[in-house]
Each structure stands twice: as structure tokens, then as C-alpha cells.
Design brief:
The chain is α+β, with helices and mostly antiparallel strands and about 300 residues long. The chain has a single domain, classed as Protocatechuate 3,4-Dioxygenase, subunit A, CATH 2.60.130. The chain is built from six helices and 13 strands. The strands form four sheets. A four-stranded mixed sheet has the order 5-2-11-10, covered by helices on one side.
Length: about 300
């Protein structure tokens, strides 16, 4: 939840699973209840890892890693990269307009403070006007007459973590919709199988949550096109009850970030560390299922709005 300059960083020396997870069809009460049930059985605080990580030299390594990743992001965003038809992928943008953002997540086991390798980080967010791809369109999710939306895969993907427990995506800064602040959905999968068609199936879910951005950054982004096209009233972080629930559970659900250029329009690099209880296993509701013939709604799985989790 802190904006840093690159010099400060140096000086302080999917995919898509085959089941498409959506989030609560704008039922905030239901979403909060799910969050509270999850937090009640899922320790995620990493404060006890601080001294252990210092002794390992992990903090210095992370600063160096972040600095390298920022430099790479600056280079990469000058080049158009698109993986057509893939779901386990790093670039989720497809043709969606918006400010590019590279998100970097490191996953640590809350019991051992060790990085978790080969965890599949599943992320998704709405586009610049608040619409989710991969679920049924509705009055709350774009144009209810757009029957093709359920077949779209924009701004969804999975990536495995490396030996440092890190995975990255390039997406666009999310828009917003009624009743919710700006956020990105995150799910951690372990023990599943990568299929030949580039999707992921099986295993268990060891984390589910949402990540947020500083209000000052949201304000900057939403002054630019295409975000200015939205006519929906913005719910701020202070007004968002899901943010409050995450914080009350001992989580720091906000990205740290730097701007990749002189202005926010040049792109953003954001990073976060997440604590995972690897002994946990959770169920995430699905709003739709991706099949070889396209997206298929799941009965009772989100009602066609931006889904669950």
C-alpha cells in the first residue's frame, strides 16, 4: 500500500482454471460472509517471519529482484506480446484498453516462512468499464444482450510460482462497478494438473482473496481514458466493506507500487507478499465452466454477474 520510487527500492537494500471463478453477483453481504469464514480458519499473517527472512538475506534478495523486475517491465511494455488461445499465460490484456500494470506476487508458507514453488496463482479483474469476461453478461456486468461475453477470456490467467515463490502477470489497471472499490481477485491452487490445451484442473485451493490499490493511485488512473468513460459512482476503499473485513482479519491487502514512467499512463509495477496456509483447502464457487465449445454457465454459481470469490 506504499508508492516507492525505483531509487528508494534500490536504496533500501491461468490462465484460467477450467472452472471460471467469478465473484459475488454484487451481493456484498454474501461476499463478506465468505471472507469471514475463510479468515477464521486461515492464518495469513507473516510478522513472525520477519527475523527469519532477515537471517536468510531474503529482504535484500527481494529488493534486488523487485528492481530487476521493474527494469524488465519497463522494457516489456514497449513491446506488444500476446499469447493467443492460452490460459496459463503472463499477459492477460488481449485487446482490452487501459493502463498496463505488471503485478508481482510472492507466496510464503505461514508455518515455515519458506517460498512456495509451483503454486498456481489465479487472478482476474474487470476491464476499464467494470465488465468481467468469462461470465454471463447482465445489467450488472456489461450489456445483458452480449451473449458472447461468457466465451471471452480477457483479464484472466494463471501462472506457476518459481523457486522464490514468485509469479507475475501483465494486465490492465481494473475499472470499477457499483458497490465495490477497485480490486483484483486472487486464488492459489496447488496439486492440480496442467492439461494439453493450456488450462489447469484439479488440486486444492489454499488461498482466496482480493487485493487493492491506494486511493490516490485509483484517483490518478481514473482521470485518464478509457476509465473516464465509466458513469458508475466510485466506491472508495474507505467505503468498501470487503477492504475493512480483510484488514480486520490481519491482512495487508494493498499492493506496493511504482510508476514505470513519468506519468501513470506509462504503466505501473505493483507487488505484494502473501502468506499461505498450505494445510488449508477451500471451495470457490464457479459462475461458469470453460469447455472446448466455449463458456457454459454453472447453475447457482453466481447468477451471471461478476461471480464468486
Amino acid at each position: 500500500m506504499v508508492r516507492l520510487s525505483v531509487s528508494a527500492v534500490l536504496a533500501t537494500s491461468s490462465l484460467f482454471s477450467q472452472i471460471i471463478l467469478a465473484h459475488p453477483g454484487h451481493n456484498v453481504e454474501e461476499e463478506i460472509a465468505e471472507r469471514e469464514a475463510f479468515f477464521a480458519n486461515s492464518p495469513r499473517d507473516l510478522s513472525h517471519c520477519t527475523e527469519i527472512l532477515k537471517k536468510r538475506g531474503t529482504e535484500d534478495k527481494n529488493r534486488e529482484r523487485i528492481a530487476r523486475a521493474i527494469a524488465k517491465a519497463r522494457d516489456d511494455l514497449g513491446i506488444t506480446k500476446r499469447v493467443s488461445g492460452e490460459y496459463i499465460r503472463t499477459d492477460l490484456r488481449e485487446t482490452q484498453p487501459g493502463i498496463p500494470i505488471v503485478i508481482d506476487g510472492q507466496f510464503l508458507d505461514t508455518s515455515t516462512c519458506q517460498p512456495i514453488t509451483n503454486l498456481y496463482w489465479d487472478v482476474w479483474n474487470c476491464n476499464s468499464t467494470g465488465v468481467y469476461g468469462g461470465v454471463s453478461a447482465s445489467a450488472q456486468n456489461g450489456n445483458a444482450g452480449d451473449t458472447s461475453n461468457i466465451n471471452k477470456t480477457f483479464l484472466r490467467g494463471l501462472q506457476p510460482t518459481d523457486s522464490e515463490g514468485v509469479a507475475q502477470f501483465t494486465t490492465i489497471f481494473p475499472g470499477h462497478y457499483s458497490g465495490r472499490t477497485t480490486h483484483i481477485h486472487v486464488v492459489a491452487h496447488e496439486g492440480g494438473t496442467v492439461l494439453t490445451n493450456g488450462t489447469y484442473t484439479g488440486g486444492k485451493i489454499t488461498h482466496t482473496g482480493q487485493l487493492f490499490f491506494d486511493q490516490s493511485l485509483i484517483t490518478q488512473v481514473y482521470k485518464t481514458s478509457p476509465y473516464t468513460q465509466s458513469t458508475t459512482t466510485l466506491t472508495t476503499n474507505a467505503q468498501d466493506r470487503v477492504v475493512a473485513t480483510e484488514i480486520a482479519a490481519g491482512s495487508d491487502p494493498f499492493f506496493n507500487y511504482v510508476l514505470l514512467g513519468d506519468t501513470v499512463s506509462d504503466g505501473i509495477f505493483a507487488w505484494v507478499t502473501l502468506g499461505i496456509n498450505q494445510g488449508a483447502s477451500y471451495t470457490a464457487s464457479a459462475a461458469a465452466k470453460l469447455t472446448s465449445g466455449g463458456g457454459v454457465p454453472v447453475s447457482g454459481g453466481g447468477g451471471g454477474g461478476p461471480g464468486k470469490v
